[in-house]
Amino acid sequence: MIALLLRDLKLAFRAGGGFGLGLAFFLIVTVMVPFSVGPQSALLSTIAPGVLWLGALLACLLSLDRLLALDWEDGSLDLLATAPLPLEAVVTIKALAHWITTGLPLVLAAPVLGVLLNLPVAGFSWLVVSLLVGTPALSVIGTFGAALTVGLKRGGLLLSLLVLPLYVPTLIFGAEAARRGAVGMDTGTPMLMLAGITAATVALLPFASAAVLRVNLR
Amino acid sequence: MMPELGKYADTVLSAYVASIALLGLLVVVSLWRGRRVRAEMKEIEERAARNG
Amino acid sequence: MTFSTKANALWEYANPKKFLATTERVLPFFWASAAACLAVGLIWGFFFTPDDYRQGATVKIIYLHVPAALLAINAWFMMLLTSLIWLIRRHHVSALAARAAAPVGVVMTLIALATGAIWGQPMWGTWWAWDPRLTSFLILFLFYLGYIALWEAIENPDTAADLTSVLCLVGSVFAILSRYAVNFWNQGLHQGASVMRIEAVTGGDTQEKVSNVFFYPLLVCIVGFVLLFVALVLYRTGTEIRARRIRALLARERVGA
């Protein structure tokens, strides 16, 4: 299992693996926001938590279509399916690798981008915590979407259409926790719900992803 | 015969027109596709029967 | 023993041939009664009900809005049920029924959203508000779109049936989750479900008689919408079965030639 994880990470870091692309996308989206809504710092600091959450979510989405597609094309997915490792574990590892290469950098970059958007000082820690708790759910849900569309030639757009509605609860609770943190309100309920969603998706969704992948590999 | 809808006439009428148009469209599209598929199936089945 | 034979008799309709033969016989009845109920209910509601003292004539929109919203949700439930049956018992008719129902559900959701927006304009002063109910319906609409897009995208029919069924299951969980999330996110303008408490529409403590004036035509409309839904789904399922048969016949021809 660890060998698989290391292999995925190595592939991602290698040139053309797409590592850093999500990060760059996150930066660009954040920079574009003031151009579209205006440079007033009061407005920017109000919308900063939501914008950063949305930016992180879209950056996550961007890298999903490569999550399984490369392994599908070169046939290593068939090998993994026949390996002694259960497919549920494989998709969990895949999601974990995606999170380490995409989600974690986004979490670390978010405070820097928060400065650009005048995020209130109190909001920084909550933004990081909410992203840290919420992004694993994004990776796991994204893996399900990637497993659904893996055999399709033009799956990218369909993948977004399938995955974005599934992201709604995570986005709502995550952005709400960050927003409440920024204005100094109690973040207990949304953080709890966010953690619950992450825990439930990490525990249950790999079964659905593996089932779907088996159908696609049939 | 037309009931007095008062100042909301536009509102009520547009809601009815929009809904009935959507339902009508759905029914027409369903029937159209159903007819076409049915005809096609008949043709292919006859062809299959002829060719044995 | 009797139960199991009855259950088996029910499963016999999963046989495509039997399904086609049976629906052929009952469909005219469904079309006719749907048309009759809708005509009676809508004409009754539109021409022969009084205006509400608070909402004026706009209350007449209820005869479209409520049945459409009801079916928008229940169409998804039906898809969930048929998807489960497909996954467990592998009846092709079941998977095709789910596929056939999805566009009907989309149209119902659209009607609910459109009539809601038209109704909301004079009542709330805005076409659209990010109210929990409205937002949930919009999200439901997106789920329908994704489901249909997945069906269209996949070549192999059995693969498509499997994948969309799993998507329907997972989507159902997330749709319910979204409903709670959205509720938490914004307390709204929309009143609670008022079909069974019609006095909420007519405004507080008006007499039962007044609310019945709105309720009976609404009931007829709901029955009409349900019948129309059943007729459409049966008809469209038949179409899907035939389309599948065409595929099989063409494949056989290619092999033979």
Automatic annotation (TrEMBL), chain A:
InterPro entries: Cyt_c_biogenesis_CcmB, Cyt_c_CcmB_bac
Classification via Pfam families: CcmB
Keyword Transmembrane: yes
Keywords on record: Cell inner membrane, Cell membrane, Cytochrome c-type biogenesis, Membrane, Transmembrane, Transmembrane helix, Transport
Transmembrane feature ranges: 12-37, 43-64, 96-117, 123-150, 157-178, 190-213
UniProt-recorded Gene Ontology molecular function terms: heme transmembrane transporter activity
Localization annotation: Cell inner membrane
Coiled coil spans: none
Primary residence: membrane
Topology within the bilayer: Multi-pass membrane protein
Keyword match Transmembrane: yes
Any single Gene Ontology cellular-component annotation: plasma membrane
One record GO biological process: cytochrome c biosynthetic process
Highest taxon, organism lineage: Bacteria
PANTHER family linked to this entry: CYTOCHROME C BIOGENESIS B-RELATED, HEME EXPORTER PROTEIN B
Family: Belongs to the CcmB/CycW/HelB family.
Job of this protein: Required for the export of heme to the periplasm for the biogenesis of c-type cytochromes.
Protein name: Heme exporter protein B
Origin species: Sedimentitalea nanhaiensis
Automatic annotation (TrEMBL), chain B:
Name this polypeptide is given: Heme exporter protein D
Species the sequence originates in: Sedimentitalea nanhaiensis
Residues annotated as transmembrane: 12-32
Cellular compartments annotated: Cell inner membrane
Family under the similarity heading: Belongs to the CcmD/CycX/HelD family.
NCBIfam families documented for this protein: cytochro_ccmD
Main location, first listed in the record: membrane
Topology within the bilayer: Single-pass membrane protein
Superkingdom as given in the UniProt entry: Bacteria
GO CC terms: plasma membrane
Keywords: Cell inner membrane, Cell membrane, Cytochrome c-type biogenesis, Membrane, Transmembrane, Transmembrane helix, Transport
GO terms (BP aspect): cytochrome complex assembly; heme transport
UniProt function note: Required for the export of heme to the periplasm for the biogenesis of c-type cytochromes.
Keyword presence, Chaperone: no
Xref: InterPro entries: Haem_export_protD_CcmD
From TrEMBL, chain C:
GO cellular component: plasma membrane
Main location: membrane
Secretion signal, residue range per the UniProt entry: none
Entry's Gene Ontology BP terms: cytochrome complex assembly
UniProt membrane topology term: Multi-pass membrane protein
Keywords recorded for this protein, A-Z: Cell inner membrane, Cell membrane, Cytochrome c-type biogenesis, Membrane, Transmembrane, Transmembrane helix, Transport
Cytochrome c assembly protein domain ranges (all copies): 20-190
TM segment ranges: 26-49, 61-88, 100-120, 132-151, 163-182, 214-235
Annotated InterPro entries: Cyt_c_assembly, Cyt_c_biogenesis_CcmC, Cyt_c_biogenesis_CcsA/CcmC
GO molecular function annotation: heme binding; heme transmembrane transporter activity
Subcellular compartments: Cell inner membrane; Membrane
PANTHER family, A to Z: CYTOCHROME B_B6 PROTEIN-RELATED (PTHR30071:SF1), HEME EXPORTER PROTEIN C (PTHR30071)
Known function: Required for the export of heme to the periplasm for the biogenesis of c-type cytochromes.
Family: Belongs to the CcmC/CycZ/HelC family.
Protein name per Swiss-Prot or TrEMBL: Heme exporter protein C
Organism for this UniProt entry: Sedimentitalea nanhaiensis
Gene behind this protein: ccmC
